[in-house]
User: Which sequence fits this backbone?
């Protein structure tokens, strides 16, 4: 018998034996002890057969590529500017930095947000499909 077939046969027998032991024994400590002892060969054989990788490949789905990756990057940048603006206002309220510096930073942040909004208007509705190698960001 080839070794892979022998491993599969041994795995099936071990799983059924483990199930029979867990079902038939009435004392919990015996079920736990024998079940754990039979779990070791099950894990070793399944790792030798590559079952974990096979199951992982079944679960891992390749998502469809994004249709608007440029727009997404612009929107993420806008959200980062909104967060920055929020922290600048918090700094202003708490008095951590000088009000003049924070006010000038707020104005610059608002200007960057206006620029980003203009870029978002220009890129909205223009699909550019990402290649799968670029991934999803």
Assistant:
């Amino acid at each position: 018998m080839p070794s892979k077939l022998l491993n599969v046969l041994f795995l099936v027998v071990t799983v059924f034996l483990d199930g029979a032991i867990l079902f038939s024994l009435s004392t919990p400590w015996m079920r736990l002890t024998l079940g754990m002892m039979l779990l070791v060969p099950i894990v070793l054989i399944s790792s030798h057969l590559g079952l974990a990788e096979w199951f992982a490949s079944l679960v891992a789905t390749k998502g469809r590529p994004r249709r608007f990756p440029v727009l997404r990057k612009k929107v993420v940048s806008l959200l980062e500017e909104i967060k920055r603006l929020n922290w600048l206002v918090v700094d202003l309220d708490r008095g951590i930095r000088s009000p003049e510096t924070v006010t000038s930073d707020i104005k610059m942040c608002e200007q960057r947000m206006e620029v980003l909004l203009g870029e978002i208007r220009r890129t909205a509705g223009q699909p550019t499909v990402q290649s799968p190698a670029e991934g999803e960001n």
The chain has two domains: 3-59, 69-123. Residues 69 and 137 are 8 Å apart (CA to CA). Residues 132-137 have pLDDT under 50 and may be disordered. The two ends are 49 Å apart (CA to CA).
